[in-house]
Specification:
The protein is mainly alpha-helical and 70 residues long. It has two domains: 1-30; 31-70. Helix content is 89%, strand content 0%. It is built from two helices and no strands. The protein has helices at 3-27, 33-69. The model has no long low-confidence stretch (mean pLDDT 89).
């Protein structure tokens, strides 16, 4: 297979990839405004709780290390 034929095959594969990707995106059921708002609130609450959890763990570990190292 010649060089130009390989390039042509590569372009066809690339265009097939993007066409297939576009077809799959058309099948997606996108969330509405109400769902998106509730999902965003859930994410923010979970991130806040995890941040508080790790802050407490960090504080406890630093206190224990201060007691050990004096």
């Amino acid at each position: 297979m010649g060089f130009l034929a390989k390039i042509g095959t590569g372009f066809r594969k690339t265009s097939d990839f993007f066409r297939d990707g576009w077809m799959e995106l058309k099948k997606v059921r996108w969330p509405g405004r109400k769902e998106l708002t509730s999902f965003t609130i859930v994410v923010l609450v979970v991130v806040t709780l995890i941040t508080i959890f790790f802050a407490i763990i960090d504080l406890l570990i630093s206190q224990v290390l201060n007691l050990i190292l004096g």
